[in-house]
């Protein structure tokens, strides 16, 4: 009788829990080193479940996503989900401002909801330059079936990860930066973790595995392309095929055809591509370096193959030409300006994307964030934002707030660049909950940068050459600017964005160029609801790790071989009760 009662209680709890919550998708990630030769030279890369790149996370709006990460590397790890907004839960963001790292041999479970989002993103390890060795993968958030999309369902959905690549692994690249030197030219470009097709016997050695995308003639495919590289902007194109842009980082775009598109570090675009050619041969897929001396950078070109099922032969001949403007950013900037939001399309909710009238909201705070070439601070080569090179604290900012640990950071990031010497500080932007922030990124370097904000999609309202001034606001797009999480900022130019500060938490604002990020070009925006309730921020998860000033609170984890992965996350207590009930049934 007792066993029957246990059983009934178990079923009751299980059913009530699952019916009360949105569906869950679960993944187990085991991070290890493997040896691979994407450019023909054996090297150490970071694999997930033995694969490089890692698996695609496939979810639907409002799904709960559970990812258990087991760290089998020899250094700390955090996984971050670029563009996934982690609404009400910066605890799951996977950067040092919010999370203590996962030590070697430990596992930790991320548990978050992809609330009110759709679109194309990617994940990657955020610490120690690790993305330069892999550990990345695609992240898809499909719309709910009841929400219409502004295009017909494609015949297939394909993730393409492009990025510059070094034969040296991330620890060697890190040492180069620590020694005060620049990384130099990459050794190549990978497409889905593979090197170039041998389109040129001189530039491409024999024996390199290349990516092939198999398609059926006459059908239309959705191809989601992310630049997961270190610091190189890439021009993406498919020989003889138009790229119909449909979405970028969670926002449907006005649909326009491009023969090629510049994709900057950290950015993701979603194209609809119709297989409308005669398949006389295979077609080149190309990702080549932009804004460089192309004669010296020819090897920094990724080449894959688009293969029709009725193809009559292999691809041959020269690659399709890139834009002929390596010393002029005007074409690329005009192309970027042409990317606009589809204001009539529904996003994650039934209401049109254009129903949020961002252009008519009063700005409550303005930050002019200016970079400059690397500087020497206290004998170290550092990168800065508005004269401050960010120092990650031993105790994460969000954790310090939770336990009222003093002296971890300063809420004094300047609204305008410092005029004196640059300095190394843990200086954070004090955002106002439900405020409306204008951020101007001023790039005073000679290289392209892209800037990313966790926790939000911002509206890209303007960009221009030279220095931003108050008069630049007259050029802003106040109607259909694209909402996204990563924007390009051209050399000696500016980009302006608008942000509605409605997501409570501590959110990383950074350059996506890994070298500059590693050297300190980042900060955080801290947003607190003075009322402090669970409606605007979820409680700290019960599996939170402790470090820094709170390290004594951390309980040891059994890392012996064969140790089962324990339930963790916000609903760990339910799993515990279930396990206890099941144990009772077995007595």
Provide keyphrases for this structure.
five-stranded mixed sheet, Immunoglobulin-like, glycoprotein, mainly beta, Cupredoxin, six-stranded mixed sheet, membrane, 33 strands, globular, oxidoreductase activity, signal
Description of the structure:
By secondary structure, the chain is mainly beta. It folds into 2 domains: 315 residues, Immunoglobulin-like; 170 residues, Immunoglobulin-like. It is built from 6 helices and 33 strands. Strands 10-9-12-17-14-15 form a 6-stranded mixed beta sheet, with no helix packed on it. A 5-stranded mixed beta sheet has the order 11-19-18-13-16. A hairpin with a 6-residue loop joins strand 1 and strand 2. The longest helix is centred in the N-terminal third of the chain and has 19 residues. The radius of gyration is 24 Å and the shape is globular. The chain starts with a helix and ends with a helix.
Q: CA-to-CA gap between the ends?
A: 12 Å
Which architecture name of the largest domain does CATH use? Answer: Sandwich
Low-confidence spans: pLDDT under 50, at least 5 residues?
1-20, 563-587
The amount of helix comes to 10-25%
**Biggest sheet: strands, sense, closure?**
6 strands, mixed
Counting structural domains, the number is 2
CATH class of the largest domain: Mainly Beta
The neighbouring-strand order within the major sheet is 10-9-12-17-14-15
Gyration radius, rounded:
24 Å
Q: Count the strands?
A: 33
């Amino acid at each position: 009788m007792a066993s029957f009662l246990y059983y009934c209680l178990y079923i009751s709890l299980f059913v009530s829990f699952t019916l009360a919550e949105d569906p869950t998708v679960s993944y187990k990630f085991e991070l290890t080193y493997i040896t691979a030769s994407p450019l023909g030279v054996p090297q150490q890369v970071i694999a997930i479940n033995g694969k490089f790149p890692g698996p695609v996370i496939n979810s639907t709006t409002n799904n709960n996503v559970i990812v258990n990460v087991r760290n089998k590397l020899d250094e700390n790890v955090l996984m971050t989900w670029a563009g996934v907004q982690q609404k009400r839960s910066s605890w799951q963001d996977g950067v040092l401002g919010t999370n203590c790292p996962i030590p070697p041999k430990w596992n930790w479970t991320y548990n978050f909801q992809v609330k009110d989002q759709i679109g194309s993103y990617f994940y990657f390890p955020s610490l120690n330059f690790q993305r330069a060795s892999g550990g990345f993968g695609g992240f898809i958030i499909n719309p709910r079936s009841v929400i219409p999309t502004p295009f017909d369902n494609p015949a297939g959905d394909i993730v393409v990860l492009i990025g510059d690549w070094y034969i040296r692994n991330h620890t060697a690249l890190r040492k180069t930066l620590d020694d005060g030197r620049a990384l130099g030219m990459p050794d190549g470009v990978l497409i889905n973790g593979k090197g170039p097709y041998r389109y040129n016997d001189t530039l491409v050695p024999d024996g390199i595995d290349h990516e092939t995308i198999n398609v059926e003639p006459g059908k239309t495919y959705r191809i989601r392309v992310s630049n997961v590289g270190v610091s190189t902007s890439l021009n993406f194109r498919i020989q003889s095929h138009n790229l119909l842009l449909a979405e970028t980082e969670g926002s449907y775009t006005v649909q326009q055809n491009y023969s090629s598109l510049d994709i900057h570090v950290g950015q993701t675009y979603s194209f609809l591509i119709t297989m409308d050619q005669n398949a006389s041969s295979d077609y080149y897929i190309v990702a080549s370096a932009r804004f460089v001396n192309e004669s010296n950078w020819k090897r920094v070109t990724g080449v894959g193959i688009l293969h029709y099922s009725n193809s009559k032969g292999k691809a041959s001949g020269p690659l399709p030409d890139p834009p002929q403007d390596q010393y002029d950013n005007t074409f690329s900037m005009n192309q970027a300006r042409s990317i606009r939001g589809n204001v009539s399309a529904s996003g994650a909710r039934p209401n049109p994307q254009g129903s949020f009238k961002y252009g008519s909201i009063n700005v409550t705070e303005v930050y002019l964030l200016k970079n400059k070439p690397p500087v020497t601070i206290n004998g170290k080569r550092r990168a800065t934002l508005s004269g401050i090179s960010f120092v990650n604290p031993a105790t994460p900012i969000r954790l310090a707030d939770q336990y009222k640990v003093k002296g971890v950071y300063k809420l004094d990031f300047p609204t305008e660049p410092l005029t004196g010497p640059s300095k190394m500080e843990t200086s954070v932007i004090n955002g106002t909950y439900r405020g409306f922030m204008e951020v101007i990124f001023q790039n005073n370097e000679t290289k392209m940068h892209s800037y990313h904000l966790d926790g939000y999609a911002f509206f890209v309202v303007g960009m221009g050459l030279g220095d931003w001034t108050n008069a630049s606001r007259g050029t802003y797009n106040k109607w259909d600017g694209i909402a996204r999480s990563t924007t390009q900022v051209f050399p000696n130019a500016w980009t302006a964005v608008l942000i509605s500060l409605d997501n409570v938490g501590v959110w990383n604002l950074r350059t996506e160029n890994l070298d500059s990020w590693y050297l300190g070009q980042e900060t955080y925006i801290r947003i607190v609801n003075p009322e402090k309730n669970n409606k605007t921020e979820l409680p700290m998860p019960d599996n939170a790790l402790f470090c820094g000033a709170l390290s004594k609170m951390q309980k040891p984890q059994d890392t012996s071989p064969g140790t089962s992965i324990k339930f963790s996350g916000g609903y760990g207590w339910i799993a515990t009760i279930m396990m206890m009930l099941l144990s009772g049934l077995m007595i």
